[in-house]
Amino acid sequence: MTFSVAFNWLIALFSLVPFIRFGDDWKKSLQLPPKDTRVRTSDVTSTKGNEFEDYCLKRELLMGIFEMGWEKPSPIQEESIPIALSGRDILARAKNGTGKSGAYLIPMLERIDLKKDYIQAVVMVPTRELALQVSQISIQISKHLGGVKVMATTGGTNLRDDIMRLDETVHVVIATPGRILDLIKKGVAKVDRVQMMVMDEADKLLSQDFVVLIEDIISFLGKGRQILLYSATFPISVQKFMVSSHLHKPYEINLMEELTLKGITQYYAYVTERQKVHCLNTLFSRLQINQSIIFCNSTQRVELLAKKITQLGYSCFYIHAKMMQEYRNRVFHDFRNGLCRNLVCTDLFTRGIDIQAVNVVINFDFPKNAETYLHRIGRSGRFGHLGLAINLITSEDRFNLKSIEDQLVTDIKPIPGSIDKSLYVALPGDRPVHQETWRRP
């Protein structure tokens, strides 16, 4: 093939493929979401002033980041991204809702080599809903990279479908521990060439429920793998893992001068058990709720409360671990898309779930420990925005209330007769939430 023929062939090829020529102002071509003008707290604004472009990321990845509405890196992203890109292990402690997912997904996707057709990165999460959420974010920010294949695999779904999917090219797997270990032991998920393993919500993944599975999974990885841990709390289980042979001189990040998010205002109301539903009805009538999450301590109480709320005339979904996975996925998807205002759930929904429209969290049943409380109230006030946490306290909860205040070094105040809307209501123009009558999924 002569030079002129080859040149003409290349010109013809490029004319068929939309691309951004060198020197173009590529940001003008981005399809950006509406600018978020809500007030943000120092949890996400107290940065060094870095830009995403400072990390020498691929332009196609930057396009996906900006089209997600991520304008500048948050503090945890500033600390984490350059270290993760260097290949070093990371042990990061940061508050819920401050951008931890972006802190590991951005360097992970930057390092994916599309010429290699095997699994290069694994993200471990403790719940199915979080796996779906992280996989959706991964797909969105990698959409311009030209072929990054992301797969979510969790328990409660068809194993045969996962096996067939792994017959094709997969670069990134987002998984719950039990399912990915099953696929590894069956020889279907080959992880010996994985270069990066992430543990999101590491405190839960290293608890007694999962730690044996996690150690098994790590044993199948190659020696040169990188491990990144992200968590809001560092219990003894995480501290033990820190000094184990699994981590190689990890870079430690601690952005937890205080445990609770700055934008969340916390109140309690003393009630008897029989007064709780009446109190909840009063809150619904007086608060300006965009979306709310209401926590109960058992699956039975979740279903009973959801039925009561519906009888009161409010739109309501419910979700808990004993529901079929298909129903759970549907409820999660519909609530996330604003099809219902209120969601009643168990602690299944406390881990990493990021729904920006939630501005009120209500503990219908008060939790037994500080860690659970911290994760529950962290469902509001996401990414530095404002939120409200209200706790219904019975006489049996008084000691727990005091204990949690002391452990978290926080102030939970008695609920006033009128709550200032500026503490939890977003500015006009935010995404509306459509009220619908509740329907059983």
From TrEMBL:
Listed CDD domains: DEADc_DDX6, SF2_C_DEAD
Motif Q motif: where in chain: 50-78
Origin superkingdom: Eukaryota
GO MF, any single term: RNA helicase activity
Keyword annotations: ATP-binding, Cytoplasm, Helicase, Hydrolase, Nucleotide-binding, RNA-binding, Signal
Record-listed E.C. numbers: 3.6.4.13
Leader sequence residues: 1-22
Domain Helicase ATP-binding: residue ranges: 81-252
Subcellular location, record wording: Cytoplasm, P-body
Protein name per its UniProtKB record: RNA helicase
